[in-house]
Amino acid sequence: MNCIIIDDDKLSRKLIESFIEKTEFLNLIGSYESAMESLKAFEGPESVDLIFLDVEMPEMTGLEFLNTLENPPQVIIITGKEKYAVEAFDYDVTDFLLKPISLTRFLKSVNKANKLHSEAMQMSGNTNEEIFIRKKNSTLVRLSYDDILWIEALENYVVISTHDEKFTIHFTMKAVNDRFLESRFKRVHRSYIVNINKIKMIEDNVIIIETKQGNKVIPIGKSFRDSLLNDINLITK
Fold it and tell me: Could you report the per-residue pLDDT of 139-148, keeping only the tens digit for each?
């Protein structure tokens, strides 16, 4: 996994760098003291799969930086203040590391990230228009892409909704977004991915999807609106 560090604390950066060197599946492609400086990493030829991101930084905080990324990679928050944990998980981060960080806790966090990354890569290579979902009783359920109406983030889980059933799986929104690479699936909000073929109406800043139980109203995030309008077959008078 290609990773970068964004932290204005030099000692903290050096510690994370040393941990990365000890981790076989991590490849450090950049270490930056500010969010603005890190933007160059996203312009290079190598993809960024994971960000180690501090919260409190001058000019732009880590959470403000996340708001600028339309499709952020996996993120592991690193900070000295536990109060940011709840807010950070609202941004669909993979994990939260509290300074001072031990190697044991670091490895637990990056192993989680690597597992999600591996699963996403396996799925992205699957050209079939269906997935199998494992239910709590270990039963595998075949689910056609065309049956999916929307996907919603719910704390450390996502809920996949169809006309007839909802499937709750232990996954991050980022990993799900990577799996559903088809053009029909579009992230429209920090907490929602929709099947654009199922959109009945777009009104102001919400999407309406018709279900058997009635209309589902899904908000459109400000940073996702332009991308959504560019991807639908829009005719204006």
Answer: 778 888 889 9
The distance from CA 128 to its chain's CA centroid, rounded to whole angstroms, is 22
**β-pair type (74-79, 95-98):** parallel
* Beta carbons of 116 and 74 less than 8 angstroms apart: yes
Average pLDDT of the chain? 85
The pair of structure tokens assigned to 6 is 């964004």
CA–CA distances in Å: residue 115 to residues 107, 121, 125, 196, 223 = 12, 10, 16, 29, 28
Q: What are the structural domains, with CATH classification, of the chain?
A: 2-124 (3.40.50.2300), 130-231 (2.40.50.1020)
- Residue 197's alpha-carbon distances to 14, 149, 206, 233, in angstroms, are 47, 9, 16, 11
The reply to whether omega before 100 is within 30° of 0 (cis) is: yes
Q: How far apart are CA 184 and CA 198, in angstroms?
A: 9
Q: What pLDDT, on a 0 to 100 scale, did the predictor assign at position 121?
A: 66
Pair 75, 55: CB distance under 8 Å: no
